[in-house]
């Protein structure tokens, strides 16, 4: 019995060390990049393991503002207004809203992101010119994990993969990120541009 407790303690110590032994310099670089990622627009391709694929445009302004417009499926508009993330089904004229902090978008919309304290980091990997940062947060509803994928030189967000509680993966690949000085005041309101 004593050996079992000793073994359990050693395994716990090993796992704790492994979890906290991420490359802090690289983590700081990613955090700095994400904190500076503001007032951007980008075309995107969204694909899912359930077979769906969409394209569109995403606009981000910190803190807490987001607009996602889909090209093909013009029935859906997603807007974050600083507090709420709204899913507007234009065809049905219905809105579903969630507090931003409970959505995966929060990772990109938080003003002063502190990766080590705001999220549980389950993986940080750098290989073949690519960096993968996997975050887990029990406060994000119905989401198992979010993977942010960056190019490594220079560090640039290329895509993110959201895995939901049903293990469906949705990948959003960014194309041609453009930095803006600012957006029109009504950009992040629930109106069709």
How would you describe this structure to a colleague?
By secondary structure, the protein is of the alpha+beta class. The protein has a single domain (23-188), classed as Clam (outer membrane lipoprotein receptor (LolB), chain A), CATH 2.50.20.10. It has four helices and eleven strands, in the order ααββββββααβββββ. It has helices spanning 2-19, 24-36, 106-109, 115-118; strands spanning 40-48, 53-61, 65-70, 76-81, 84-89, 94-99, 120-127, 130-136, 143-152, 155-164, 169-179. Strands 6-5-4-3-2-1-11-10-9-8-7 form an eleven-stranded antiparallel β-sheet. Strand 8 (130-136) and strand 9 (143-152) form a beta hairpin. It is globular and about 50 Å long. The relative contact order is 0.18. The model is unreliable at 8-20 (pLDDT under 50).
Distinctive features:
193 residues; outer membrane lipoprotein receptor (LolB), chain A; 4 helices
């Amino acid at each position: 019995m004593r050996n079992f407790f000793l073994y359990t303690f050693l395994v716990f110590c090993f796992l704790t060390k492994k979890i906290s032994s991420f490359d802090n310099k690289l983590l700081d670089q990613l955090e700095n990049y994400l904190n500076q990622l503001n007032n951007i627009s980008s075309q995107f391709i969204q694909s899912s393991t359930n077979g769906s694929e969409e394209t569109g445009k995403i606009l981000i302004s910190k803190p807490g503002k987001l607009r996602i417009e889909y090209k093909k499926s013009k029935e859906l508009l997603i807007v974050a207004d600083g507090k709420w993330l709204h899913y507007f089904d234009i065809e049905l004229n219905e809105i579903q809203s969630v507090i931003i902090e409970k959505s995966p978008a929060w990772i990109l919309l938080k003003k002063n992101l502190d990766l080590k304290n705001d999220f549980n980091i389950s993986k940080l990997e750098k290989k073949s010119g690519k960096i993968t940062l996997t975050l887990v947060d029990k406060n994000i509803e119905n989401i198992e994990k979010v993977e942010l994928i960056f190019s490594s030189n220079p560090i640039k967000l290329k895509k993110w993969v959201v895995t939901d509680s049903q293990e469906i993966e949705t990948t959003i690949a960014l194309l041609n990120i453009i930095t803006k000085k600012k957006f029109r005041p009504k950009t992040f309101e629930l109106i069709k541009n």
